[in-house]
Design brief:
CATH architecture of the domain at 187-303: Alpha Horseshoe
Number of helices: 29
Order of helices and strands: HHHHHHHHHHHHHHHHHHHHHHHHHHHHH
Strand content: under 5%
Helix content: over 70%
Number of strands: 0
Distance between the termini: 66 Å
CATH class of the domain at 187-303: Mainly Alpha
Shape: globular
Length: about 525
Amino acid sequence: MLLRRAVEEPPAAEHRSAVLAELAFAASRAGTPDAEDRLADALAVANGRDERLMLLRERTRLMWLTGRLPEAVEASETALAETEPDTDLHQQLLAELLAVASMHDLSPIYARPQLVELLERASTGWVPEVPALAATLATVLPFVLGDLRLVNPLVDQALTEELWRVDAPPFGLRPDFVMGSLWLSENLERGTQVVHEGLEVVDPDNLFRHGLLHYWMGELRYAAGDLHGARSAASSALDPRWGPWVSWFGFSSATLAHVHMDLDDHHRARAVLGAADDKVDPHQMTGISVDLARARLLLRTGEPAEAAALVDLVQERLEVLGHRGSPQIVWRPLAATAAHALGDTDHARALLEEEVELARRTSALGREGRALRTAAALAEGDERLSLLRQAADVLCRSERRLERARAMHDLGVELHSRGDVPGARTALAESRELAETCGSGALAARALNALHATGARPRRTARTGLDSLTRAERRTVELAAEGMTNREIAAELVIAPRTVEWHLGRAFAKLGVTSRRELRDALERRDLS
C-alpha cells in the first residue's frame, strides 16, 4: 500500500525507478494480477544495469511460475546477454536459463556454447561451486544426458548454502530443483526429507512455496507407492488457495488421476483430468503429463486404439521439445501395452527393449523394473519367467514399493502355474503385504485370491489393531516402544530414518495412538491379554 502511494504521489525523478522496481518486486512476490505490468513499467525506467538485470530475472521467474516458458526463456537470454562472463552472476543466470529451457524447449541449451560446455564438464563428474548452478545441473543432466548417476554430488553441493531463502537463485526455486532431481533419480526418502524440512521452516504466508511443497510431496509419495499419502498431497497441491500461479497444476492433476486409477476409481480419475484440460498447455510438459494419464485411463477402460493415438501425439510433442528420451515423461510402456492390445506385438517388444536400455543406461531402477514387468506380460514360457525374476530383483533395490508389489504378484502367479507352490506363496505373500502397506486394496485382494489358489489359507487382514500391522511396522513399533529413537531404529533395521517415520505413522493410525507412551500402553495391553 505504501509503495503504491509512493508511485501515485510521484517521488523525485531520481527515486522513481527504485520505487517502481520495489513495487514490481512486491507485486511479483505476492502474485498480484498486475505484477507483469508493474515489471514492464519498472523496466521502462530502470537506472543502471544491475537494476535492469534484477528486473529481467524477476520477469523470468514470473513467466516461469505462470507457465509461459517461451517468454521465460526470452527474458533469461536477454539478462544473460547483459552480464560479464566468468562472474558468479553470469553462472547464476546460466543456471536460470538451464532451468527454464529444461522444462520447455532444449534448443536454447544446445545453441549456447557456454551451456554445452557446462553440461560436458558436468557429465565428467565436475561439480560447480555455485549452489544454484549445481541444483539446476542436477535436474537438467537427466533430461539432456539421461544420466541419473551424477545427481547426488550435485545435490550435495546445492545444499551447502541455505536452501529456503526466498531470493536464492534460481528464482528462489532451488529447493524445487533439488527435490525434482531427487525424484528423477529415485532418491525418494531423501527428497521427502527435504520437503518435510521445507514445511517446517517456510513462512506460512508464502502460499506459493507451500503449494509447491505439497506438489512435490505428492510426486514423491506416489513414486514410493504411498497411495493415500499421494492422494492427500496432490489434492492439496490443487487447492485454489495457493493462488493463480499454479505452474504444477498439470503434473499434480496427472498424479492424482494415476492414484485414482490405482485405487480402481476411474470416475474420479476422469473428472480430475477433465478439470485440467482448460488449465494446461498440451504442448508443454505439464499438459503432456495429463495426456499420458488420460492414455493410461483409456487403456484401463478398454480403448487401446484411442490410447495409442494419444500416445503418438505425445511422442510428436516431446520430439518438438527435444524431450523424447526425458526421464520425467515415461511413455513407452503405455505405447507398448496399446500396441500389443491392437495386435502389433513386434512394435510393442521393440518399444520395451528401448525402454529397458534407457533405464539401465541411467540407473533408474523403478523405470527398469516397470519395463521388465510390462515386457513379461507380452512374453511366454521361460522368457516370461526370466523377465519377471529380473523385474522382482531390480525392484527389490528400488524405493518404488507398489511397483515391486505388482511384480511380485505376477511372479507368484507365474510360479504357481509352473507348480512351484512354495515359491508362489512367498512371492504372493510379499505382494499382499506391500500392497496393503501402499494402500492398494485391489492389488492386495488379487494377491490374496492367488494365495488361496495355491491352497494357502492366510488370515484376512485386520484393518485396525496390532493384527493389522505389517511385519516391518510391527518390528518398528516394538523398537520404538523399547525407547529407541528413530535414528537408532534405522540403524538397527538398516533402513532410512524417513522409512522409520513412515512405518510409525501408519502404525499409529492403525492403532489409534498419537504418542510413544500410548504405543507402549497398547503393546502392554496386548501382552497381558
